Amino acid sequence: MKNLIKYILLIPVLFMSYSCDDEFLERMPLDSPSSETYFENETELEMAVNGVYNRLWYWPAGIAWFLSFDFASDDGWDRNGSPLQALGRGEQNADNGFTNGFWSHFYRAINRTNFITTRGSHLRDEMDPAKYDRLVGEARFIRAYFYAYLAELYGDVPLVTTTLTLEESQTPRTPKSEVIDFVMSELNEIKGYLPMDATEKGRITQGTVLALMSRVALWNERWEDAAAAAKELMDSETYAIDPDYEGMFTFAGDNSPEVITRIQYLRGVQTHNLPRNFWSRMALGHSNKKPPQDMVDTYDAIDGLPIDESPLYDPQNPFENRDPRLDYTLVVPGSRLVNWIYETHSDSTMTWEFQGEDSVRVPNIEAQHAYASFTGYLYRKHVDVANYPTDVGSTDQNLTIFRLGEVLLNYAEAKVELNQIDESVYDAINAIRQRESVQMPVIEPGKTQQEMRNLVRKERRHELGIEGFRYFDIRRWGIAEDVLPGPYRGRVNRYGEGGWLNEAPMIDPIGTPSYDHISNADEMVVVETRDFNPNRDYLWPIPRIELETNTALTQNPGY
What we know:
Helix content: 25-40%
Shape: globular
Largest sheet: 2 strands, antiparallel
Strand content: 5-15%
Low-confidence stretches: 1-32
Distance between the termini: 49 Å
Number of strands: 14
Strand order of the largest sheet: 1-3
Structural class: alpha+beta
Radius of gyration: 25 Å
Mean pLDDT: 92
Number of helices: 18
C-alpha cells in the first residue's frame, strides 16, 4: 500500500443559528467540529492541515489544475467546447467558468490556512512545537503556492492572511509585487520547519519550498533569488536526475530520485481519470485533450539540430531520429498505445492489435471516428498502462508537481538573465539532456547570452512539455501574442495523400514552427482559429460575482 498522507476532508464551518432561545444559541454541534472549540488538540490540527492538502485535488475542465493551463497554450487544446477552450481562443470574460473557478478554489484553500493560523496558535504550547511548526508550515506553503498562482493569473489580488469578519470582507486588491514579497517571505520562514526530504510521501519538504521559491522568483524576474533557491536545492544533493524520463510520470515516479513532490491519490479515497482524457477511443479513452502539429515539430532531431536543419530528418518518416522526449511525451501515428498501433490517417481503416505474443489486424476506430483524431496526436505523459483497463476511468496514480529537472532549468535561465554564464549553467542543462533515456548532444560552452536564452527556452518546451509550464512561459517571455493567434493545426489528413508535410517547417531559435512555405500546408487539419489580445489577455478577468460582492475590487483592463 502506498505510504502517503491520509487525507481527511475538513471544512471549517461557522455555525449560525437564529432563535430567541439563548440557551440554544450557546449549544455546540455534537456531530462535527465547531469554530468555537476548534482547535482543541493535535489531532484536530492534523485533520485541518490534511484538509488544506485536499485542495490540491482540483480538476477544472476534467484535468488536474496544474496541468490545465497548457491546454490554453500553443501546446494544447480542450475538445469539450468548455470555458477552457474559450480561454485558448482568447474569448474569456468575467463570467468564464474556468478562470472564475481558480479564484474561488484558491481562496477557499487560503481561508483554510488562515483559519489554522488564526485559531490554532495556542497549540504550539500544548504539543511538540517542532511538530506544530511543521504541520502549520505545510499549510502555509500551500497558501503561498496558491497566492503565487493567483498573482500570476490575475495580477493584483487581495492578500488576506487572517480570518475576516463580515465587516472586513470588502478587501481591495494588493499590488502583485507585495503578494510575491509575501510568498517569498513565507517560504523563507517555513523552510527551516520542514525536513529536506519527506518520510511520508506527499508531504511538503524543504525541497518543495526551494523548488517553489525558484519558480516564483523566475516568473517575477527576481533572477538572483531564483538562482540562489535553485542552487541551494541542487547543493543539498537530496535529489538526482532520473535516468528514466518516461518512468517519472508513471506509478514508478513515486520512487524516482528526481521527483520532489507528487499529489497523492488512493483508490477508495480519491482517484482521477487522466487516462480517459488522454487515451484513444480504441484504448477506451475519449482523447479530449489534444496536442497540435506545432508541438510535434518543435522537438529536435537526435543530432541536436532543429528538423529544418538536420540531415537526419525525413519528412516522409517524421518521427524517426527525433529527441526521445517526443515519444515519451506524445503518442504519434505508428507508435504503440496499450495494445494497439495508434494510426489516425483517414485511409488507415485497419490497424494492429497485440494479443499476447501475437498481433492481428483489426478495424481502426481512430481513422474515421468523429471524435477520435482531430489533430492526429495524443498525450502519453502522466498516464501508466500498468493497470489497464481498470485505471482508464479511475486511477490512483500520483501526479508530479515538483521535480529537479524544472529546478535545473530555473537555475540555468536565471543565471543566463544575470549574464553569469559559467560552467554550472552548461552542467545544469546537459544533466537533463544527457540522462540515460534521452542522450541528446551536450551544449558546448562559448554561447552568447542570447544564444543561451534561446537554448533554455527551447529546452523548457522539450523537457517540461505538458507539465503546466508552457502557458506561463509564453506569457512571462512576452511571446504569447506571437505564438497563439492563428490556426491550431493537426496533421495532414486527406484521402489519397501520404499524411505528412512535404517539407520540414521552419523552426525559430526557441522551437516555434512556421508553415508558411510548406507546399501542402493547406492540407493540415485546422481545429480552430485562436486570438490573443496583448492589451488584455496577459491577465485573467476578475470574476464578475466577486466584483459584485466585494465592491472594493476593480476589474483588469479590457474586461
